Amino acid sequence: MTAKLKSKLNFLKLVGCFLSIFLASGSNLWGADDFLLPTENQQTNAVKVSGTVTSSEDGQALIGVSVMIKGTSS
């Protein structure tokens, strides 16, 4: 191969790589800026839960217990 043909082939490989990366990145390049920030429609609803944890044996209140709500992280 000649040097000119090798140069064109390398250029086409480079363009192909950039094009692949560009297309693989999806819609994030076309204004989808809400992928990290919550949108106006997304809300977090804080709910206060209160009550008494009792023993199943005698019905007495259990002191010092911790309650975890299923599906939450805190």
Keywords:
1 helix; mainly alpha; 74 residues
Quick structural overview:
The chain has 74 residues and is mostly helical.
Task: Describe what you observe in this structure.
- The protein is mainly α and 74 residues long.
- 30% of the residues lie in helices and 0% in strands.
- The relative contact order is 0.06.
- The model has no long low-confidence stretch (mean pLDDT 78).
Structural class assignment: mainly alpha
Q: Name the average pLDDT.
A: 78
The biggest beta sheet is recorded as: none
Order of helices and strands: H
CA-to-CA gap between the ends? Answer: 65 Å
Beta fraction:
under 5%
Helix content: 25-40%
Number-wise, the strands total 0
Q: Spans with pLDDT under 50 lasting ≥5 residues?
A: none
Shape: rod-shaped
If helices are DSSP runs of H or I spanning 4 or more residues, what is the number of helices? Answer: 1
Radius of gyration: 30 Å
Secondary-structure map:
Blueprint: H1 3-24
